[in-house]
From TrEMBL:
UniProt cross-references to InterPro entries, sorted A to Z: KH_dom (IPR004087), KH_dom_type_1 (IPR004088), KH_dom_type_1_sf (IPR036612), KH_domain_protein_archaea (IPR019964), KH_PNO1_2nd (IPR055211)
CDD domains the UniProt entry points to: KH-I_Dim2p_like_rpt2
The organism's taxonomic lineage, starting at the top: Archaea, Methanobacteriati, Methanobacteriota, Stenosarchaea group, Halobacteria
Keywords noted in UniProt: RNA-binding
Start and end residues of each K Homology domain: 1-81, 82-152
Name of the protein in its database record: Ribosomal RNA assembly protein
Molecular function in Gene Ontology: RNA binding
Length: 185
């Protein structure tokens, strides 16, 4: 059994209307959730497939970090799906710096965050003092690198170019990997 702590304001999202979301997570991930709404503590106990059960705490953590339940459940789509968190607070010197860095990650009208999602295929959420990422290993890696570049003060244009490059690399690897079946005729 693992214990995960999530923010108070995310408990309602985790439980869902009439407990619907909680039941869906329990069924899909083959876990049992024991939610303490007083302190935000969630006990995650595996009741079925142990490999699926390992994803249970990450699903709860992802919802706690601002992801919608359906996005968090993407972690079950594939064994390779990862959930990662970039701590914005650790890169900030003070509250104002934190706000500024968070703003850089979000971008004007949310454009930077959207571009991270579009060009990598990962889901990206900025909530509180963290940036959460759900995706395949190379998608998560690309978003983490882009976020770190922005937090280190890199110009947005340079980060967008980096993301375009990563996007083309991933697209190229996809083409290489999914060669048409059968031989030439």
């Amino acid at each position: 059994m693992q214990h995960v702590k999530i923010p108070q304001d995310r408990i309602g999202v985790l439980i869902g209307e009439g407990g619907e979301t909680m039941r869906e997570i329990e069924a899909e991930a083959e876990v049992r959730l024991d939610i303490d709404s007083e302190n935000g503590s969630v006990a995650v106990e595996t009741v079925g497939d142990p490999v699926l059960g390992l994803k249970g705490p990450d699903i709860v953590r992802a919802i706690g970090r601002g992801f919608a339940p359906e996005d968090a459940l993407r972690l079950l789509e594939d064994d390779m799906m990862l959930f990662d968190v970039v701590d914005i607070d650790a890169a900030a010197r003070n509250k104002n710096d934190m706000k500024r860095k968070k703003g850089r990650l979000i971008g004007e009208g949310g454009r930077t965050r959207e571009l991270m999602e579009e060009l990598t295929g990962a889901d990206v959420v900025i909530y509180g003092s963290t940036l959460g990422i759900i995706g395949a290993p190379q998608e998560v890696d690309a978003v983490r690198s882009a976020a770190e570049m922005l937090l280190d003060g890199a110009p947005h244009g340079a980060v967008y170019s980096f993301l375009e490059e990563k996007h083309n690399e991933m697209k190229h690897q996809g083409l290489e990997y999914h060669r048409f079946p059968g031989g030439q005729s």
